[in-house]
Amino acid sequence: MSKIVVNKNLPKNVINKNIYGHFSEHLGRCIYEGIYVGENSDIPNKNGMRTDVVEALKEIKVPVLRWPGGCFADEYHWKDGIGPKENRKRMVNTNWGGVVEDNSFGTHEFMELCDQLGCEPYINGNVGSGTVQEMSEWMEYMTFDGVSPMAEWRKQNGREQPWKVKYFGIGNENWGCGGNMRPEYYGDLFRRFGTFVRNYGDNKVFKIACGANIDDYEWTDGVMKVAGKFMDAITLHYYTHPLGWEIKGSALDFDRPVYDITLVKAQRMEELINGHLAVMDKYDPQHRVGLIVDEWGTWFSVEPGTNPGFLYQQNTMRDAMVAALHLDIFNKHSDRVIMTNIAQIVNVLQSVILTEGPKMIKTPTYYVYDLYKHHQDATLLDSHIVGDTFLHHGPLDIPTLTQSASVDDNGVTHITVSNLLSEESQKVDVQVLGCDLSKVKATILTGEVHAHNTFDDPDAVHTTDFTGFTVGGDTISAELPACSVVLYTIEG
Ligand code: AHR
């Protein structure tokens, strides 16, 4: 039996809803086909955006969406993606499959998408192959409310009112695909480019610096030292590759040891967050600068027969467990982690949605976001697991249980608890202090660890009501099935 203690009398910080953010890149079938099909498509759409995908994403309350990359961001020239579509310049997407990008999805289309989703845009600018002027003019084009060359151009292209753009990333992975830079050099470029990303009117830009890959603490150190004072946040990228970068392994075909290693690798996010925060503390002891994990998730081999440059992978209950584990870690660090963006929203890596022609499926990861949406902008509650619930196999510490809890503005408490064991059920008692447990409801996502939705069987995995719990005094007890995520909702 495992025990979790949640204390409603110990409220902590507000969990920034942007922790539940997403990422969309011009990569494979994420934007084109997955989201944007164009106004003339037979697939039902509004202004070119697939209605089925937009409706599904609205249900999970996507709070913020990052675009246009990723590696693509540092070779994207925004002026190629505005104006009449027939005149838009074509380019080679050198990072992702060498396909020709026709730029039919550009700034206006991205803002339309954010508008339909009701989410904030997070735009990633080009430092690697772009210019200071280009970046500066992009912000003027989007946000200047007055007479200026860029604002006039925007109006000619059909948008009278400026948009609001709060989140702006100055480069992506500039230690690698974004220019192979050294941290001090990038830090100087951040200062220079950032100077000309102007605030127009009441649009206040939140400037995001390119942070480290995995445990590259030297990068964080160098960039913070040079540019810490000039930024609002710095990023971190960490993907879960169970078998390492070279092999990756199949999304669908894996055994118990590989599953266990996947969890060990996913759990590493906690160590990395703590490590990078400690480096940031050296230069920002007041904790003014936020940490944004704007790329994370599972990265497996592509599905057989698909373009290796498109990073299309299926998504099983294993991915759901990885998502739950990460989101609980992010909730618990939400005093410093202010945004995260799972990679990527549709058809790429650990997606919440997959599409095939006119068909669409919600993945197990989608349902985790559906359960966890209640934590958005709620107040984190103190919670902990009593005792050691890790399995210790040689050098591996395999997590078996994860949880987080919050209370929303209406006083409703939400507790998410996951049994990460792939084959064994687990009796879990949740003691909830300071709460009346007369009105408890529960919802569950569970399935065999390989279970997944397909275009022929789109509903194999989904959430259902969970009644297999009892309440005694201040404790909710349940036998949690193997590989399950349970959301307890407590009114009062
Ligand atoms: O998400 C796929 C790629 O992973 C991104 O383009 C890049 O930033 C990272 O290496």
Folded structure, characterized:
α5 packs across α6 and α8 (317-332) runs parallel beside α9. The protein has 9 helices and 26 strands. The longest helix has 28 residues, at 256-283. It is 24% helix and 29% strand. It has a 10-stranded mixed sheet, with helices on one face. An 8-stranded parallel beta barrel has the order 2-5-8-9-10-11-12-13, surrounded by 5 helices. Strands 3-4 form a two-stranded antiparallel sheet. The mean pLDDT is 97. It has helices at residues 51-59, 107-117, 132-143, 149-156, 183-195, 217-227, 256-283, 317-332, 364-372; strands at residues 2-14, 21-23, 45-46, 49-50, 64-67, 91-93, 99-101, 120-125, 167-170, 206-213, 233-240, 290-298, 337-343, 353-356, 359-362, 379-386, 390-393, 396-399, 401-407, 413-419, 426-433, 440-446, 463-465, 469-472, 475-480, 484-490. It is globular and about 70 Å long. By secondary structure, it is an alpha/beta fold. Residues 25, 69-71, 172-173, 295, 343-344, 349 line the site of alpha-L-arabinofuranose (AHR). The site of alpha-L-arabinofuranose has 10 residues, from loops.
Instruction: Give helix % range.
Output: 10-25%
- Strands of the widest sheet, in order across it, are 23-22-26-20-19-16-1-21-25-24
Count of alpha/pi helices = 9
- Overall geometry: globular
Report how far the terminal alpha carbons are from each other: 27 Å
Mean pLDDT equals 97
Bound ligands, named by name, code or SMILES: alpha-L-arabinofuranose
> What are the segments in which pLDDT stays under 50 over at least 5 consecutive residues?
none
